[in-house]
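Thought: the user wants the 3D structure for the chain below. I'll pass the sequence to the structure tool as-is, report back what it returns, then summarize two notable features.
Action: structure_tool
Action Input:
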Amino acid sequence: MSEQTSQSETYLKPLPQKDALSAPFWDALHAHELKIQRCADCSRYAFPPVSHCPGCLSTQLAWTAVSGKGKVQAAVTVDHAPMPAFKADVPYNVALVDLAEGVRVWTNVIGCAPAEVVCDMPVEAVFEDVTPDHTLLKFRPAR
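Observation:
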């Protein structure tokens, strides 16, 4: 996985809220690691965070480091800001990325023009420190 992107001094966009279930995911991102839950009983990965395995309903889920490698499944270019805080970013993309481990994440692909983001494009995780307490998961074209 790659190094961080730049940190903003003032971040005006909505930020994710940690709860007991998702805290290990956000804490790992803050440490510039990507961890996903994996079932100890059936080995299935699960995302977003869950209390029971979606495959076998086991509660034996462990946070496991994953590769951060994936492929774009779908992407859309946002041309109109949904709120004023996003105005400077348009156009930008919202993408669905299939991780190598078999889970999908909603994200943004950075480091290229939105129109360059296409299905099956190989991508890798990057970590965007947006505040001293918040790190977001994004992806860039694989190197």
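Final Answer: Structure generated. The chain has two domains: 18-66, 67-143. The two ends are 10 Å apart (CA to CA).
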